[in-house]
Design a protein that fits this description.
With 175 residues, the protein is mostly helical. Helices cover 69% and strands 5% of the residues. The longest helix has 22 residues. The protein is globular and about 45 Å long.
Length: 175
């Protein structure tokens, strides 16, 4: 998948989530199933994830190479990245739960601001995706807390899948 296709995939996955959010009653923002995140926490988690990736992609390329090295294997496609993530979630449920247990619960008053931040961060990632060279997409690596080191291309594709994963969760349990 080339960088334009990845940027388009990001756009499609985020549009699907925004469409679902805008169809939900506003009072559902702070609600969620028992012992599960609220809708607002899902969005906060996605915004935080996007912001961390955008911050990492703002570093000079030489710094990323120095700090994390370069890829020494063949790049993975979208389906493989998505499948590996789902497998890692199953294998590391307790670790994932611990990693995310103290996530702030945004209030209804913070909704518009958080959704604006979400939109800005996802547009920024699309822009950065289109600007980075195909070579750097496949050689530079960034660590993921659950998946380990991933190429920039893989982590951006993972971001699209991550959004889809949360959209599906929201549609299934929060509608």
């Amino acid at each position: 998948m080339d960088k334009v296709d990845i940027a388009d995939l990001l756009e499609a996955k985020h549009l699907e989530l925004f469409d679902w959010l805008h169809k939900q009653p506003i009072e559902n923002w702070e609600k969620g199933p028992e012992n599960k995140w609220s809708t607002s926490q899902h969005i906060m988690h996605l915004v935080n994830s996007l912001q961390l990736l955008n911050n990492a992609l703002s570093y000079p390329r030489f710094f990323l190479k120095y700090k994390f090295g370069v890829c020494n294997r063949a790049p993975r496609d979208y389906e493989t990245v998505a499948k590996n993530y789902q497998q890692k979630l199953i294998e590391n449920q307790d670790r994932a739960r611990t990693f995310n247990q103290n996530l702030k619960k945004p209030t209804l008053k913070e909704r518009d601001r958080l959704l604006t931040r979400f939109l800005i961060q996802q547009k920024k990632l699309q822009y950065k995706t289109k600007k980075i060279s195909e070579k750097n997409l496949d050689t530079l690596v960034i660590p993921h807390p659950l998946m380990g080191k991933m190429t920039v291309r893989e982590i951006i594709m993972w971001t699209a899948h991550h959004t889809e994963h949360h959209t599906n969760t929201l549609k299934k349990f929060y509608a």
